[in-house]
UniProtKB/TrEMBL annotation:
Domain GHMP kinase C-terminal: 219-295
Keywords tagged on the record: Amino-acid biosynthesis, ATP-binding, Cytoplasm, Kinase, Nucleotide-binding, Threonine biosynthesis, Transferase
Gene name of the record: thrB
Reaction catalysed by this enzyme: L-homoserine + ATP = O-phospho-L-homoserine + ADP + H(+)
Natural source organism: Alteromonas profundi
Protein origin, superkingdom: Bacteria
Compartmental location: Cytoplasm
Function recorded in the entry: Catalyzes the ATP-dependent phosphorylation of L-homoserine to L-homoserine phosphate.
Name of the featured protein: Homoserine kinase
Principal place of residence: cytoplasm
Amino acid sequence: MKKALRAYAPASIGNVSLGFDVLGAALAPINGSRLGDEVDICAADAFSLTVKGPFAHKLPGDVDSNIVTKCYYYFCEQMELTGRAVSPVALTLHKNLPIGSGLGSSASSIVAAFAALNDYFDAPFSEDTLLHMMGELEGQISGSIHYDNVAPCYQGGMTLMTGAKEPVTLSLPLNPNWYYAICYSGISVSTAQARDILPKQVDMATALTFGRQLGVFVHALHTENFDLAASVMKDVIAEPYRKSLLPGFDDARAFSESEGALAFGISGSGPTVFAVCNSSEQAARIARYLNDNYIQNQDGFSHVCQIPKSGTVVSPLTEHSDA
């Protein structure tokens, strides 16, 4: 009997403030809970997709328009192009991440789907090939191909995009003593909307600042000069424009800085924000403030996270697995 599997793909921070479209980081709550989407796969007579989870109702009711369905058919196309056989499967998407949250919600669904399919069909595609496939499908939602969510979601850690066909990413060193207070406000900001608000060009001074900060950051991580790394975690490209979409952003930043946060910024396109902290206690204080003051409705939440070394996990699905 063919195996049944579940793929878990974690939430992620796109850009990490200073690395617009070229830097991303996976997220893992320190309390051990999972923050990410899951996709189950098992044998079937015909393809089907079932959608469950706390944010399933936010997705289109037509499963043919669901990005996981598109992942399945794109995977089948690529298998056929390489002369490999595909059999029908039943997929279940557990939609645990809010849509338009800035936590890599669409990336999480896409990565979990491709990881489940690739493992189920005995790993026909390499990591870089899968990343290209994931980026292609992510681009259908956001309007442009970028890897700052799909890459860390799939690979874990903090990843730097190379712009090359392979390797697609480079893994950056992590500071095990950094904690991230993250808060989703509950409102939705589409990636396309958040990109439209940005200028089409940046001036020379801004471009030089962006390049300098990213270079210093990468060097500082490799030399374990983490104070220097934190000092350049400032978004000069997107935040000046995108913060207008986020009610309470300036107050949240001011409180975080008053508590000694090393950096504060927008996760991806927002509205989720994050504060980089030197201790779990400091992160917990900031998370409590954000929970009480930044959240706009009942969908919002906050977590204290770290960046996990591992990303997507595929494991056997048993009869005892949660529904």
